[in-house]
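Researcher: Before we compare anything, I want clean individual predictions. No alignment, no superposition, just each chain on its own. First chain goes here; please echo the sequence and then give the structure tokens.
Model: Echoing the first chain and its structure:
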Amino acid sequence: MRRWQIGPVLGALFALSGAGCADRALPPSDLTEVLAGPRGLAVCPTLRPLEPDTIAATERTCQAAIARAGTAYVVALLRGEHACVDTNHPGPEVAGDPVHPCVGLRALSTGSFREPSDERAAAATRRAAEDFEREIRAACDDATMARLAACSETVDGLVECLRADHWEAAQLLLREQYGDLLPLDDESARACRARVGAASVDLLETQASAIADCLLAPPPEEVASRARRCFGEVANGVVASPTDRKTADALAQSARVFREAIRDACDEVHVPSVDSCGRDLASMEECLLCAHRREAMYVVQSQFGGRPTSPKTDFIDWGTLRNPVVGWDDRRIKDQVMAFHDDHFWVIGSIAFEDDDDHAVAVPTYVRSDDWRSWEEIPAPEGGLGSPDLTFHDGVWHVVFQHPDPLVPESRRLFWTTTPDLLTWTPRVEIAPNVLEERSIIDGALARKNGRTHLLLKWRVEDLPWIAITADDDLTAPWPVDGRLVAGTEQAFHGFAENGQFIEVDGRIHMLATARDPEGFRCGSIYTCSHEPFLYDFAVGDGSAVEDWSHWRHKTQLRIPYEDWNRVMHANTGFLTDWRAHDGFFYLSYSGSLDHESFAGRGHGKIGLARSRDLMHWRLPGDLRD
């Protein structure tokens, strides 16, 4: 039996916004409806579940226990976390990320779990895990597991992988429901938030159970697709309800109950303070319906496994590709950007040899390929393109990069060049020469909005990013400095950020940055073991006003699975591209290594690739799930 590993569910924890998510229990010819999408996305990203195998009668008891115990585990985790949040975070004196004390932490690198610091939350987490494991072990043995398509062929392996997967699902949904856990001193707002949490958990439980019951029941006749019969699917912003009438009715009824519960406790004034997904009451309902419907599908998929229905894409041969996709034995690469231009994939980054000193600028070369396997080296402009940022504007590519200060070579300043073809370059000129004068600044990134150009940069001494703004396209003119960019809070985990990138997704700008790993340092180098990709959203506004750019929130880790080649430096200097127009996926490139000693303590960096339809669930090369 062919098996497909089901990895951790959590990627970016975004709120959803928009309208039109409910199912309609109607005849098959009228089983579609437009969905809302994640924050920054116009529509709900595509999700086509795996095609599950038919379950033999001798295996049904075990498979039913897996589904029942798995869903109960997610539900118990969420209810325990809600009780902790609602008890310990009622007023204005507490704010911040809800990971502690109510959630704990599961380390990506090791899979180990750190319990919540709140005693009651920790006890609830332990009980949920014990009940989950007890029920599965009572119904399953290794012989049965070997015949199922779950994430492991043994009971021990199943317990481990499903617990990790479902814990991640619970944390994704908690952030959808409660956002950044804003302080609430209004009793009615706290009641609204509590109702959002309770109703959302009921919604998830009902929908996951209905889908699993359908998969466990023998179909009344041969069907072309059990996935279509029991899951339905989401494709191009449209949800197709299950063709099984009983399941479709159950999903539609759970959506109606959810709407009524939310409207009983919440009104428009509560939405901003509750910080759930959505920007008004209607979009909050719709986006939570979408988030929980999709996560119910993911949870059940991880319990049943299956085979991809569309095993190949033409844009990138993902099924046979393996990480790392770029790397050399005698060089390291990090701070990379990538582009698709002239039917080639281009990767430009900071490339250095082992014997270069710690402050060496990139070797003057970069690479291109038409298949991600064989790479042609391209000569870069003299001096290289150190830590580049790449954007496309007005028909040309713009690159901002760092280079030694002509007057103080041990310091760095930011320079700018353009190219129509990624082969020929205009002469480099210094950008924002008056910003943080006589100081070393690095990691520049550009964004344009409403006739203004915004420059993100990092002052190397403080490890915090700054924003500068110019009113027009003369990037070499003096820039007014808007002040320090507040990325989250001033706490160590939230404040540090570097190697930033602005990316516009369906008309809304986000910031991607390398920031501190919540797991903390895992080795002796600050350059390798605490750098992870995070995505941010505007705290207020949409970027139309200058002040919008100085405050960012919803700091969300892109949780890329580990592989054997990147156990030490995991996913440093991430760069995100929106290639949905080609095959429906976002792609993230990142630098990883197995050491933190070589290359002046920066590790022997090579480049990996991951992709996602929704910025939440990330797949590695070879993994063909949507």
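Researcher: Okay. Second chain, same rules.
Model: Second chain and its structure:
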Amino acid sequence: MNNLGTWAALLPQALVLLGLLLVPGGLVLRSLGYRGLLLAACAAPTSMAAIALLGLVYEVVGIRFEPVPVVIGLTVIVLLAWTGGRLARGSVPAALPDPEVARGRDTLLPLAAVLLAWLVLVRPVLTGWDPSLPGQQIDPVFHHNLAWTITQTGNASLLTGASWSASLLYSTRAYYPLVWHAMVALASEGGTELVEATNALVVLVPLIWCLGVAACAAQALPRFRLAPVVAVAAALMFPVYPAYMLYTRQLWPNALGYAVFPAVLALLLHAVRLITGPAELGRRRALLVLVAVATAASGAAATYPAAVFSILLTGTPLLIAVIVLVCRFVWAHRRHAAVRALLVMSATVPALLVAFLVSGGATLILARLVRETGPSASSLPMRLFAMATLWPRGRTGAADTLRFACQLPLVAASLVIAWRNRRTRWLVWAWVLPMVVLAGTYFPLGPVSALTGLWYNDPYRIMPLVALVSSVLLAVAARWLLMRRAPAWSQFRSTVAVIALVLVPALAAQPAAARVARSAYDTTSTVLVRTLSAEEVRMIESLRGRLDPSLMVLGDPAAGAGYVQAIAGNLSVFPHLTFRAADTDALYLAEHFDDIAVDPRICWLVHHYGIGYFYEDEPGQVPGIDVVGRAPGLYGVDTSEGFEPVASGGTATVYRITACGTVAAPQRFPWVVNRPFEPLLGSDGALNTFTPEGRVVQD
């Protein structure tokens, strides 16, 4: 099906999101002297850092995270950056001169390549997706409803914004990276167009990725004009990212964190080259570029924390080089200052470590490291093949065979060529380190396999790191080939040969990318999670304005009920596919709601929480979850009495609950933490006992 016309209607939202991603960060970097491709690529992570900062500050001072306050806040940040940049630069005419990097007209060719590659990456989505339909994987309903929650609470703080994301029990201050959700909330017209805003941002993520790949290649090979073009074309060779992660797995914040990862590496490369440059470049410029690196990295981390570990892993050679160069510089020019700095660091580092331990950061990391891993020695050929090709879905046709036949020798040759050059040898280490961790997801490698917990023990979350470095490595090989063949061939013939060598496997990868980009609503899609049909989506859309917004909707999220928040604007008892063991009231409803006619506890809960509606449907398909077994009370409910139908669509029907009498709006505000006198029921189904302050009396 062709939905280009429907996508065109999303252009205003796409422009808002593109402005959020590029304008604030671009202006901040421009104040520090950045220009051209590096500025365009690094604007997104810098903007994301500013959005995360605003979310934190606004929650503390009590300002709602809404379009007008956010625009004002971003303007203030940009003005402060311009003032600080001017003061830091002093009389220096340009903060970051970089004569080795091509400028001017040479920036147009990489940008053209970026736009062309972006169109190739998003074509399957633009032609095959209906942007008004939500995602159906395990994560999308969670992300949709987090964005909706921001529109209701006005809180986009990473520390507290996700505190109201778990069923009836809103009692825990929860940390969660909310940059993705904050941007979607801002572009959603007050929460009424959340699905459309989400899909618009999905389409923009590949553009950010392509810009980063081009900038990373330009910084790695500053004297090779075609480096960004070759690297961007080569990136199309690896559909594991963005196509598989973004379209099939729909890991949206994670995918955005990876999209800006190449830009952070580009800044690191720029820092290394600047610090090792001529002395007249000055200490101020070196300091400014390190500030820019830290800001961009914090933006990536605020979007998805695993981005930090990805930067530390792949960027290890560059980080070591930066640390060594800075230490050498300080020791050579300010020996006494260096001693004082070491003393300060000796006191600061332990203090930061203690703060990290107290904040619970160590607990979160340790929880990841002790996750159960799935590596084994079974199916050895398949595991080796997936690891070598960076494709966890196997070979399914002649196009895949052609791609792998080109990809494997090209990457192998590129590694050899890069190792022989001292300036590009770091790329080999940047390729080997994530490849070792990737091996730990497939094979039992002890501590290495435990380390993969930082990436959820999933190979497809590590493969993008290798894909990025492989793309830059192919640019290194292209430069070597041009230098070797240029004397024998004309420059034009050499260039055409190099581009063709990369484009053949890149184009051969597109059928695989198109397969994994199929909409979950396409009957030919292999998506494993199916919770609601297109007809049910339209029915939920019709509920907006027809249901009392003060009353909740009860139903199994695996049957589609969780989408009533983001699509219809009504609170759902179960807003996510996963259930919480501590949420005893919600679990009791999931197990016993079908006893509403005989169990008085059901009506106690209905009146206390203001549950006015029941979403009835056939069970959905969610791998790893016994849908009916975990919520038997939500299926087979006798709706012949005590229920009035409100709307139907597909196999789903929404009823007004009348079996408990008139359900009025509850005398409670949902967007508060630690609400008193909840939950009503304990884990055994008995009424809890409360103190006068409303706290549960523990047995």
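Researcher: What stands out in the second chain?
Model: The beta strands are 552-554, 611-616, 643-649, 652-657. Additionally, The radius of gyration is 27 Å.
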